[in-house]
Amino acid sequence: MVQTTDIPVMALKEQIKENHGEFLESLRHRFLDDDRKAALQRFENLGFPTKKDEEYKYTSLKEITEKQYNFFPKEGHNITKEQLDELHLGEENFDWITFVNGKLRKELSNVSIENVEFLSFNYALNDEKHRDIFEQYFNTIASKDSAFTNLNQAYCKYGFFLKVPKNVVIEKPIHVFYISQNQEENTFYNTRNLLIVEEGAKVEIIESHHNFDSVYVLTNSVTEIFTYPNAKADWHKVQNDNDTSYLIDSTFARQEKDSLTTVNTFSFGGKLVRNNLDFIHNGSNINSFMNGITIIGKDQLVDHHTAVHHNQPNCESYQNYKGIFSGNSHGVFNGKVFVDKIAQKTNAYQQNNNVLLNEGATIDTKPQLEIFADDVKCSHGCTVGQLNEDALFYLRARGISKKEAQALLLYAFANDAMQNIDIEPLKEKISKLLAEKLEVDIEF
């Protein structure tokens, strides 16, 4: 039975302030205390965003902020290997790292990579030799104007730190699992990830969150990615959690010249999911890719907010988001492209296409361009509609049932948003999830 409490709207904000002193006392890395207190003060000044805020005009957070949460998760768990195996992608040659109730579980992890610095975030904060790295990178590109990034800075403890040295190519993808289990109260996690990919290096990360309980879990996740010249960083988010899960995910990527960074977001589960994605171009000849597939129903909400800052010439960005909505679900897409006056020869593409399967489903879409250069090639667009009746008739005329014909068309509609996935087991897993959500039998 899901636990709910009838309490004032501002209850969560009050809980955050009340718990912060105890949280700081529980930490050993005191060098961030002043930064955490300053971040908490910024959060208090900002408060949680409401629908009066332009960035949240289509997304209400009331159901999140009206609940009581435990800020100190119980560490005990009984996750089995079989349960974890079900979360894997069927891969045979991946590395993976597993966090259960916020704590890194080495016995449930498999890390074989060498010549890199790969630590839990909490351990890295406690390690003196990483102090300079954190002072150089931590919270340097995350927004200071966001309530959630400030809240994360004030409370972050869980997550991982990965530094890939110059010219090191990590051949195996790394799957990071965040699991919550055996919690008796609604639980609040502030996860933090820091990825540094040095010149000529390459890495691929897969991230997924899983709530095994019927109580509500709120995860406020912040990721900072630094991609150096001629480096490649791919980050894949598989969001397929249960109906008592809330996820606020903020990812910031800063790229140097000749680099390539990709963030793919596949949203199938969770009660409310908000994805904030911010790319910063800090050199020329940069390539940025953002792709997303959303398939939700019932009363789920998935909100994608993206921004690309073209600050240098001869760079490209590509955004392709597909959404399929049924029941009383609600989708939001707000994509922004900023082109600085010196960013000549910019090539920016942005597209958001959506299908509404019934009258109860809604989508609010708002692609935006802000261009101050004159020699650019920028395009954006969005579509909202239903299935093509002619294509549906064509399939049915060949003996395919109406349900199967609809599912096949929807599968084809969403499929092109995952064409740049280099990891075959991940591509197959997403294809299977698509097929399951659409209830169609697809052979792989």
From TrEMBL:
<dbReference type="InterPro" id="IPR045595">
    <property type="entry name" value="SufBD_N"/>
</dbReference>
<dbReference type="GO" id="GO:0016226">
    <property type="term" value="P:iron-sulfur cluster assembly"/>
</dbReference>
<dbReference type="Pfam" id="PF01458">
    <property type="entry name" value="SUFBD_core"/>
</dbReference>
<feature type="domain" description="SUF system FeS cluster assembly SufBD N-terminal">
    <location>
        <begin position="20"/>
        <end position="176"/>
    </location>
</feature>
<dbReference type="Pfam" id="PF19295">
    <property type="entry name" value="SufBD_N"/>
</dbReference>
<dbReference type="InterPro" id="IPR000825">
    <property type="entry name" value="SUF_FeS_clus_asmbl_SufBD_core"/>
</dbReference>
<dbReference type="InterPro" id="IPR011542">
    <property type="entry name" value="SUF_FeS_clus_asmbl_SufD"/>
</dbReference>
<feature type="domain" description="SUF system FeS cluster assembly SufBD core">
    <location>
        <begin position="184"/>
        <end position="413"/>
    </location>
</feature>
<protein>
    <submittedName>
        <fullName>Iron-regulated ABC transporter permease protein SufD</fullName>
    </submittedName>
</protein>
<dbReference type="InterPro" id="IPR037284">
    <property type="entry name" value="SUF_FeS_clus_asmbl_SufBD_sf"/>
</dbReference>
<dbReference type="InterPro" id="IPR055346">
    <property type="entry name" value="Fe-S_cluster_assembly_SufBD"/>
</dbReference>
<comment type="similarity">
    <text>Belongs to the iron-sulfur cluster assembly SufBD family.</text>
</comment>
